[in-house]
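Lab notebook: predicted structure, single chain.

Context: the supervisor wants predicted structures on file for every construct in the current expression panel, including those that have not yet been purified. This is the next one on the list. No modifications to the sequence; it matches the entry in the shared construct table.
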Amino acid sequence: MGRWPRLAPDVFLAPGAQVIGDVEIAARSSLWYNVVVRGDVCHIRIGRGTNIQDGSVIHVTRATHATIIGDDVLIGHMAMIHGCEIHDHAFIGLSTIVMDGCVVEEDGMLAAGSLLPPGKVIGRGELWMGRPARFVRKLAAEEIAAHREAPKGYAELAGLHADSLAVAGSSGGT
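Prediction complete. Output recorded below exactly as produced.
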């Protein structure tokens, strides 16, 4: 591997979170309990204010597909994100799978439980769902606004957890 993770000082790593290899995580992002971010054979970049929830796995494909996640992205519990691009303000539902070569454009949404097959592109402001995922509709302006506000709540929650863990004496993830 030969590369080490680079995390902004205010990144929240919950206990059990693992960050391995060529990984860069920007300010105000949070990786919750038992998240694995494994940049062992290609790089991973995670933008500012992004929230990756409990049990999710972020990985890559050797030499062909890095994983790039933008700013203020929400990734739900138990998601599998593999060798893809997720742009700013995207919303990835819980228990989803995003496969190699996929792109989720700005404000795109993948509904809970969906599987996005290799190479698919969710356009800006689109909702996709299913196994395999298919286009459903354009998101309403109100839905996009709500998704854009959600990271603020998770940043506050991360602060509360960090404070609680500090009081309890936990060192968090690695």
